[in-house]
C-alpha cells in the first residue's frame, strides 16, 4: 500500500524503558492489555536507561502485571511485546525513589495486516521497524495513549478513537503527539471475545 509523503495515518501506539540501580531505587510497574482491554500474560518487558544503554528485562504475570525494581533516576526507553501482538514502545522519566506506573496497550499485528498496512506475516516487522511511533514512524498509532491509558474500561474506546482522529485532522491534538500535516485519519476497533465472538468497525476521515 503506497502512502503519499504528506499523508499521515492515525492508528495505535508503542513503548520502551529502564535500568537497575545498585541499591534501593525507584520501581516501575504497570499492566499490559490488548486493544479490547484484556490483560496480556507473559509479555516481554524491556527497560533501557537512555544515558548508559543498560537494560533490564522481565515478563508480565498471569494478570498482565509487571514490576521492574531498583531503577536509578533518568530517562528510559521501554518496550512491551507478546506473541500475536505488535511491540509497544514509549519513554518514561524516573524522577525519584518511588513507585511509578506505566500501563501499556498492545495492538494486534493481525489487525494491521487485515487493514492492508502490511502483507500477511509481515505485521511484526512493520511494528519492530518503528513505523507506529508518533513523530517518528509513518503510521502514528494510538496518539491518545490507547485504550488502557485513555478510555478503557469506562468509555469503551470506540467514540474516543474518532474524537482523537478529528483532533489530529484539525491540528488540535496534544502538541507532543500531533501528527504534522495530518490529512487522513483512520479509527479502527475490535471488540468481544477474540477468536470466538467479536466484531470490528473502521472509519476513515480526511481533511478537505
Total helical segments: 4
Q: Runs with pLDDT <50, length 5+? A: 1-22
Main beta sheet strand tally, sense and closure: 4 strands, mixed
Q: Helix/strand-derived class?
A: alpha/beta
First-to-last CA distance: 22 Å
- As a percent range, the share of helical residues equals 10-25%
**Backbone shape:** globular
Helix and strand run: EEEEEEEEHHHHEE
How many E-type strands? 10
Query: Which radius of gyration do the C-alpha atoms yield?
Result: 17 Å
Work out the strand percent.
25-35%
The average pLDDT score comes to 78
Tell me what you see in this structure.
By secondary structure, the chain is an alpha/beta fold. The protein is built from four helices and ten strands, in the order ββββββββααααββ. It has helices spanning 109-114, 123-128, 146-151, 158-170; strands spanning 26-34, 44-49, 55-59, 65-71, 74-81, 88-94, 99-101, 104-106, 184-193, 197-206. Strands 1, 4, 7 and 8 form a four-stranded mixed beta sheet that branches. It has a three-stranded antiparallel beta sheet with strand order 2-5-6, with no helix packed on it. A hairpin with a 3-residue loop joins strand 9 (184-193) and strand 10. The longest helix is centred in the last third of the chain and has 13 residues, at 158-170. It is globular, with a radius of gyration of 17 Å.
Summarize the structure.
The protein has 208 residues and is an alpha/beta fold.
Task: Lay out the secondary structure.
Blueprint: E1 26-34, E2 44-49, E3 55-59, E4 65-71, E5 74-81, E6 88-94, E7 99-101, E8 104-106, H1 109-114, H2 123-128, H3 146-151, H4 158-170, E9 184-193, E10 197-206
Parallel strand pairs: 1-7, 1-8
Antiparallel strand pairs: 1-4, 2-5, 5-6, 9-10
Amino acid at each position: 500500500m503506497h502512502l503519499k509523503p504528506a499523508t499521515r495515518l492515525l492508528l495505535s501506539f508503542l513503548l520502551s524503558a529502564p535500568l537497575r540501580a545498585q541499591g534501593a531505587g525507584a520501581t516501575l510497574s504497570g499492566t499490559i492489555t490488548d486493544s479490547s482491554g484484556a490483560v496480556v500474560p507473559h509479555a516481554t518487558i524491556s527497560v533501557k536507561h537512555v544515558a548508559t544503554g543498560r537494560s533490564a528485562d522481565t515478563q508480565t504475570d498471569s494478570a498482565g502485571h509487571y514490576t521492574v525494581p531498583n531503577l536509578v533516576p533518568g530517562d528510559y526507553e521501554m518496550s512491551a511485546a507478546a506473541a500475536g501482538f505488535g511491540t509497544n514502545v514509549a519513554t518514561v522519566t524516573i524522577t525519584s525513589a518511588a513507585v511509578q506506573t506505566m500501563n501499556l496497550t498492545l495492538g494486534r499485528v493481525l489487525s494491521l495486516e487485515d487493514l492492508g498496512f502490511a502483507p500477511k506475516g509481515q505485521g511484526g516487522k512493520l511494528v519492530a521497524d518503528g513505523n507506529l511511533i508518533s513523530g517518528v514512524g509513518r503510521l502514528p498509532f494510538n496518539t491518545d495513549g490507547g485504550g488502557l491509558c485513555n478510555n478503557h474500561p469506562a468509555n469503551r474506546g470506540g467514540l474516543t478513537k474518532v474524537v482523537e482522529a478529528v483532533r489530529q485532522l484539525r491540528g488540535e491534538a496534544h502538541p507532543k503527539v500531533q501528527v504534522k500535516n495530518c490529512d487522513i485519519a483512520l479509527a479502527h476497533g475490535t471488540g468481544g471475545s477474540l477468536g470466538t465472538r467479536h466484531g470490528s468497525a473502521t472509519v476513515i476521515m480526511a481533511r478537505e
